[in-house]
Amino acid sequence: MVRATVFKFAPDVDPAPHYETFEVPLARGMRVLDVLEAIREDLGQPISYRWLCGVKKCGLCAMTVNGRPCLTCWEPAEPDMIIEPLAGFPVIRDLVVDRDAVDARLLDVDPFLHRPEDQPYRGFPEPLSGAAMRRAGTMMNCIECLACVSACPVPRERFIGPAALVQLARWAFDPRDGADRAALAVAGGIAECADCGDCTAACPAGIPVKEIAIAGLRELCIRSGYPDAGPAPQEKCRLVVPRGRDR
Question: Regarding the domain delimited by 100-238, which CATH topology (the fold level of the hierarchy) does it fall under?
Answer without folding.
Answer: Fumarate Reductase Iron-sulfur Protein; Chain B, domain 2 (1.10.1060)
